[in-house]
Amino acid sequence: MKVSxxxxxxxxLNEVLELLRTLMEYRSSDVxxxxxxxxxxxSMLHMDVLLLIYHFARFSEDNILEIGPYIxxxxxxxxxxxxxxxxxxxIVSIEAGGRLKHFRLSSSNIIKDLKKNLARFGVAEEVTLxxxxxxxxxxxSDVRKRLTSGDVGLFVFDADNNVRRDLDCYGDLxxxxxxxxxxxxxxxxKAAPLRAQVDALVAEGQLVPFxxxxxxxxxxxxxxx
Length: 225
Ligand SMILES: C[S@@+](CC[C@H](N)C(=O)[O-])C[C@H]1O[C@@H](n2cnc3c(N)ncnc32)[C@H](O)[C@@H]1O
Known about the structure:
The protein has 9 helices and 7 strands. By secondary structure, it is α/β, with parallel strands linked by helices. It has a single domain (about 5-220), classed as Vaccinia Virus protein VP39 (Rossmann fold, 3-Layer(aba) Sandwich).
């Protein structure tokens, strides 16, 4: 197998190793126990990814922008991290709503179930939920009322297969070094176009890969141009 040199040339190898070590420690911590409950009730994401979202929300600078919370697992993980952070943070989460069939976590009313889960895990007050498609004019203007340029230190994308569209909309809000968690980099159906977009953004120097986690989630950083 050809070994990509993207990580060793673009990101500091020590930082990548540090992230892996940090994650290993979280796996046997109380944070993991708390997030297991969240994951079971409300997330399709792998536990390692929820732990990383928690970690970035807790230790990165600035605010959090999420696109595609579904019924809230990733949002609750971010809110727990933000709550335990030394600095106060806004969490803005954009969800289109509707219904979804899933073998474990179906929802006939995504917004209703999302609000229910945010309340159930005690974070409803900490999350600004924007209902609508990420690329709708009304959504963009609502987000921009709440976040300004370079204001975001964690961007979580778990929506459809067009992350570039949303980075075109919101990229200016991300700070230099902003952490990105982008799901479905690897997997069936929607993964191929999304992977091509992420790889192109890496080749352009806009994104720096720090690793591939869980069932197909890309983790890395934003470089402001
Ligand atoms: C795979 S689910 C997210 C799973 C969630 N992050 C978790 O922790 O399990 C994808 C969600 O993105 C939403 N979505 C898809 N495209 C969207 C868009 N352009 N804007 C906002 N939400 C979107 C869908 O309604 C769905 O709830």
